[in-house]
Amino acid sequence: MYLTVKETAEYLSIPQASVEKLIQHRKIRALYDGSQYLINKEQFNTHLKQMEKYKQLIEEILNDPIPEDPDVKDED
Questions:
Q1: What pLDDT is stored for residue 36 in this prediction?
Q2: Domain map of the chain by residue range?
């Protein structure tokens, strides 16, 4: 499924100008049909899945308690 620049901006929740910049810098792939750019929606699925995995990993790391250091001596 192909999206226009406007639809892509709405899908990614970013401004249209940002999508256009990403296209110009070749960060996202797009086809030019003579009047507008068309972006394949599927290219974002892998990225969005990876971002979700990273979020879960970070949450797990942040929720793990810090283990006590066995070398710490109580000097009270």
A1: 95
A2: 2-63
